[in-house]
Amino acid sequence: MSSKKPTNWDLLFQEYFHKVERVLYILVAVGIAIATAEVIYDGSRALGSAFYQGDISHGILKVMDRFLLALMFLEILHTVQIVFSESYHLACVEPFLMVAIIASIRRFLLISFETSHSGTIDPERFRYFMIEMVVLGLLVIALVGAVLLLRKSRKASS
C-alpha cells in the first residue's frame, strides 16, 4: 500500500471544507434551538389550554407529544455540541442512540394513549397497534443495550 503525501491543494481544500462544515453545524444548532423554543412554547400553551377546556386527555396527549419532541431536539443539539469538541470519534454515537430511545418511547406512549382514549377501536387496527408496541419495546431494549455496551467499551478503553 502506498501512502501518498497530501499536496498543498489537498490541505487547502480540507481546511476550507472543515470551515464550511463548522458554519453549517452552527446554522443547524441555531435552527434546532429555535425549533426547540417554539415546541416548548407550544407545549406550554397546550398545557394551559388543556386546563381551561373540557378535553383534558387530548390536551395531555398534545403536551406529551410537544415536550418529548423538545427532548429529541435537545438531544440532537447535544450531539451537535459534541461534534464541536475535538474528541467526538465514539462519543458522538451515544446521543443519537438517546434520540432514538426517546423517539421510540414517545411513539409507544402516544400509541398507548390513543388506544386507551379513542373509545371504540377496530380489532384489526388494535392488533396493528399491539404489534407496533411490541416492536417498539424490543427496539428500546436493543437501543438501551447498545448504550450500555458503548459505555462499557468506553470504560474499558480508558
Automatic annotation (TrEMBL):
<dbReference type="Pfam" id="PF06146">
    <property type="entry name" value="PsiE"/>
</dbReference>
<keyword id="KW-1133">Transmembrane helix</keyword>
<dbReference type="GO" id="GO:0005886">
    <property type="term" value="C:plasma membrane"/>
</dbReference>
<keyword id="KW-1003">Cell membrane</keyword>
<keyword id="KW-0812">Transmembrane</keyword>
<dbReference type="InterPro" id="IPR020948">
    <property type="entry name" value="P_starv_induced_PsiE-like"/>
</dbReference>
<protein>
    <submittedName>
        <fullName>Uncharacterized protein</fullName>
    </submittedName>
</protein>
<keyword id="KW-0472">Membrane</keyword>
